[in-house]
Amino acid sequence: MPDTKSPRFSPRGDKEAIESGLAFQPKFDADGLIPAIVTAADSDEVLMFAWMNADALSLTIETGLAHFWSRSRRALWKKGEESGNLLSVTEMRTDCDQDVLWLRVNVEGDGLACHTGRRSCFYRAVPVGGAPSAALRLVPAEDPAAH
Amino acid sequence: MPDTKSPRFSPRGDKEAIESGLAFQPKFDADGLIPAIVTAADSDEVLMFAWMNADALSLTIETGLAHFWSRSRRALWKKGEESGNLLSVTEMRTDCDQDVLWLRVNVEGDGLACHTGRRSCFYRAVPVGGAPSAALRLVPAEDPAAH
């Protein structure tokens, strides 16, 4: 486990430092979490979305394998630890506000990032262009890999 | 503005309905918000990340232009309304849990999605593979369009 005694990340600076600086000053929300977007390294298709606490972020940086915080299980979560579908990070980025992370990954094992057994969690499309109503139906989307 | 009297989205069902069904049952968090990942329609590079409330989601579906909820300004936000960099949605997807949205967009105007004047908000990389510390420095990333 990471050393929690010394500061692992820079404290938040002013707007200029956050947007234009090179000190990593990740913003964790009131629950101590930062959102992480995960895309496939070879195509940038969005595979999944999850949350990291400071421990998960530290472990991801240290090991190069994506770790998250499971809000439902309230536990640190090494993605793929049970399934073998580990996420090997090829690049991590942060955004202008340093309050979001983007991970490009190679999915190990069977290459399935979604717990439903699919490559991506985003396997249904929301029709755009009509009036939203409770009758709105999702449309099964083609495998994003075929995009 | 959307009609707020009739239900605009299905109520949340059970796990099976949410994961495998075709009824759109978006989950809004305790603040009434759902996260939205925005990628470029032509490359899937991640451009930005923002939040939608039910009104923003309804307007996005109705108009095909991305609307968000600005948490800092506490206001509905038609992205690009002032800059001209409107986000025209070519596809919207939701994930297995229906608690995240993914929008593929064409950026109108100057093609810049970030308020800093860049194409993408994710213009800095976080080095992976070392020990996290307050001394960690971000690396300016190549224009994602060149990826």
Query: In order across it, which strands form the biggest sheet of chain A?
Result: 2-1-6-5
How do the helices and strands follow one another from N- to C-terminus of chain A? HEEHEEEEEE
Rounded average pLDDT of chain A: 93
> How many strands appear in the DSSP assignment of chain A?
8
- The oligomeric state of the chains shown is homodimer
How much helix, percentage-wise, in residues of chain A?
10-25%
State which percent range the strand residues of chain A make up: 25-35%
The largest inter-chain interface, given as chain pair and residues per side, is: A-B, 64 and 64 residues
- How many DSSP H or I helices of chain A? 2
Structural class of chain A: mainly beta
3D architecture notes:
Two copies of one chain form a homodimer. The first copy, chain A, is mostly beta strands and about 150 residues long. Chain A has two helices and eight strands; from the N terminus they run αββαββββββ. In chain A, the strands form three sheets. In chain A, strands 2-1-6-5 form a four-stranded mixed beta sheet. In chain A, strands 3-4 form a two-stranded antiparallel ribbon. In chain A, strands 7-8 form a two-stranded antiparallel ribbon. The N and C termini of chain A lie far apart (about 40 Å). The mean pLDDT of chain A is about 95. At the A-B interface, strand 1, strand 2, helix 2, strand 5 and strand 7 of A face strand 1, strand 2, helix 2, strand 5 and strand 7 of B.
Give a quick set of tags describing it.
147 residues, homodimer, mainly beta, 8 strands
